[in-house]
UniProtKB/TrEMBL annotation:
Belongs to the bacterial solute-binding protein 8 family. The lineage of its organism: Bacteria, Bacillati, Bacillota, Bacilli, Bacillales. NCBIfam families: TroA_like. It comes from Tumebacillus lacus. PANTHER family: MOLYBDATE-BINDING PROTEIN MOLA, VITAMIN B12-BINDING PROTEIN. Keywords: Signal. Residues 5-260 form the Fe/B12 periplasmic-binding domain. InterPro entries: ABC_Transporter_SBP, ABC_transptr_periplasmic_BD, Vit_B12_bind_prot. This is Cobalamin-binding protein.
């Protein structure tokens, strides 16, 4: 099957297509695909990732639509693609190894296998260099990752941020919770006393979030991260999307922990 006309309905997929040099084949994307900015701005938008306009999608005559179950609720779009007989590929990454495999899957589907293997080697090299940087660290700081503030949603055991935390010699605060996400109570965060709080609110640009939105919460003044000025707002695109940009986030995280 020729894959000259590709549609991505998830931001991380769009980013992987860019890393594989395939953006010239992309004819449509979801509304939240915003990276790289110049190329995504010029493409037709098909609606939010959880409610894709199927009529507009069909009108673009795709050879392949790429979805991802990393976005909760994407199943509805996948069902609609299947009902209409539209060729599609469904990724479901939960770990760094899954991202490597997704790159291979896309490489095979789009006949760019060599590019895919080269990209995997490049990303593995970034991981190896970070591991070498933190090899001598004796402290293992506790990181509270906040995906959403109301309710408090954080990555659980089966999410890539647990592995990202481990790779920099740290520990995801809720790594012991099953599944890929966990809804926490404020009291749990306070009791677990994280050394760092990282606000990565999904779909919210970092300039819209202020550390004071966290530090001024009732009872949080006893949290070590708050007491030590370690409540940081990070670019969610580097931590919430399972693409090559996550490895950039890994490097940034290593820098943050070294500096503090």
């Amino acid at each position: 099957m020729s894959t000259q006309r590709i549609i991505s309905i998830c931001p991380s997929n769009t980013e992987l297509l860019h890393a594989l040099g395939l953006m010239d084949r992309v004819v449509g994307i979801d509304d939240y695909s915003d990276w790289p900015p110049e190329e995504t701005a010029a493409l037709p938008k098909l609606g939010p990732d959880l409610n894709i306009d199927m009529d507009k999608l069909i009108a673009l005559r795709p050879d392949l639509v790429i979805a991802s179950l990393s976005v909760p609720g994407m199943e509805k779009n996948v069902d609609r693609l299947a009902e209409r007989g539209i060729p599609h590929l469904v990724l479901n990454p939960k770990s760094i190894d899954d991202i490597y495999e997704d790159i291979r899957i896309l490489g095979r589907a789009c006949a760019v296998e060599e590019r895919a293997e080269a990209l995997i080697l490049e990303l593995q090299g970034k991981v190896r260099r970070v591991q070498e940087r933190v090899a001598g660290r004796t402290e293992r700081p506790k990181l509270y990752w906040e995906w959403w503030p109301r309710p408090l949603i954080s990555p659980g055991q089966l999410n890539w941020l647990t592995m990202i935390s481990d790779l920099v010699g740290a520990h995801n605060l809720f790594a012991d919770k099953p599944g890929d996400s966990y809804t926490a109570e404020h009291s749990e965060v306070i009791e677990r006393a994280p050394d760092y709080v990282f606000a990565v609110w999904c779909g919210v640009h970092a300039d819209k979030v202020k550390p004071s939105m966290i530090t001024e919460r009732e009872g949080w003044q006893t949290v070590p991260a708050v007491q030590n000025g370690r409540v940081l707002v990070l670019e969610e695109g580097l931590y919430c999307r399972p693409s090559q940009r996550l490895f950039q986030g890994l490097e940034e995280l290593a820098d943050i922990l070294e500096a503090r």
